Amino acid sequence: MLDNHIYNLMEQIVDESKSLWRISKRYKQDADDCAQCQAFWEKLDDDKEEHIEELTELIKAHLK
Predict the structure, then answer these.
(1) CB 3.0–4.6 Å: which of 4, 18, 55, 62 could bond 13 by disulfide?
(2) Are 41 and 27 in contact (CB under 8 A)?
(3) Residue 56 · residue 13 · CB < 8 Å
């Protein structure tokens, strides 16, 4: 059985991944006529990618 904090990391990576998918596939396309919003979604997309990478490394470290 995993410790609760590892489960929390796994839950968060799922949430971040779902959010990244929505941003990439829907939100950026919906805002295609607004440069300011496009820039915001692009920045958030990059942030989510970084969060997912960091969470992946944390989960790997705990599952060794």
Answers:
(1) 55
(2) yes
(3) yes
Instruction: Let me know: does 59 contact 9? Beta carbons within 8 Å.
Output: yes
| pLDDT at 1 > cutoff 90 | no
State the pTM of this model. 0.89
**pLDDT single digits (tens) 5-55:** 999 999 999 999 999 999 999 999 999 999 999 999 999 999 999 999 999
Work out the angle between the directed axes of helices 35-62 and 4-22 (0-180°, nearest 10): 150
Distance CA 53, CA 56 (A): 5
